[in-house]
Design a protein that fits this description.
Helices cover 83% and strands 0% of the residues. The chain has 224 residues and is mainly α. Helix 1 runs antiparallel to helix 6 and helix 4 packs antiparallel against helix 5.
Length: 224
């Protein structure tokens, strides 16, 4: 059957194999989407955290906040929550607010990875369903034609074997990609947590007045 190419294999595998093929394409699409979304996330977050750290060491809280507002990194939202709460909340409340935002960003980084886990768990069973369906077809053909030759049972057996094999392959593919992203996101979440904790420590040491923007020249003249 494999000498007939991809279309021949799909035809032999029946509708179950078509669904498994769709799951495989979906797995690859989600993997590519997550790679694009996570590309450079850690490096951009680290760069922003270093900029904020240097500014806070100099006491330039307003400059650090401006750097966050200009940044396109999702991690900037974590730092901006801290700047919003700085001077208006207790250190404990500020830390809790930053941690909540960090968790929200971490959850957002997962995207649709749950689909990979679902496909990884169900694809082998879909293949098993195709196996049962193919064997049922084979027995139906035996009952209809009252023959037991390979030409009679061959198509049903082919569907059974092909769907089982492809279901296992897609399941393994999905689980491997899912575990890779979980490992990568776990490391990213820890790094983001460390950045947030260091940020809160440095920000809590600065007086709230430093976060206020400096008055413009015309406003200073009017005040004078």
């Amino acid at each position: 059957m494999f000498e007939h190419g991809v279309l021949g294999v799909l035809k032999a595998g029946g509708f179950t194999l078509g669904f498994i093929a769709f799951c495989s394409v979906l797995v690859l699409a989600i993997a590519v989407e997550r790679v694009v979304a996570l590309w450079g996330f850690t490096s951009r977050a680290n760069s922003l955290a270093e900029t904020i750290k240097r500014c806070l060491y100099r006491g330039a809280v307003a400059e650090a906040r401006a750097a966050c507002e200009r940044s396109s990194s999702p991690a900037a939202e974590v730092f901006l929550v801290g700047f919003e709460r700085h001077g208006r909340s207790s250190p404990t409340a500020l830390e809790a607010a930053v941690e909540r935002e960090r968790q929200r960003v971490a959850v957002g980084l997962k995207g649709h990875l749950w689909i990979l886990g679902t496909i990884g768990a169900t694809a082998p069973f879909i293949g098993l369903f195709g196996t049962v369906w193919g064997i049922m077809r084979a027995f139906n053909e035996i009952g209809a034609q009252h023959k037991t030759g390979f030409d009679v049972v061959g198509p049903g057996i082919a569907e059974a074997l092909i769907t089982t094999a492809f279901g296992i392959v897609v399941g393994i593919e999905s689980v491997m990609i899912y575990n890779y992203f979980l490992s990568r996101l776990g490391k990213t979440a820890i790094e983001l947590k460390l950045m947030a904790e260091e940020f809160v420590e440095l920000l809590s040491e600065r007086p709230a007045e430093e976060a206020k923007p400096e008055p413009r020249g015309d406003e200073s003249a009017k005040a004078g």
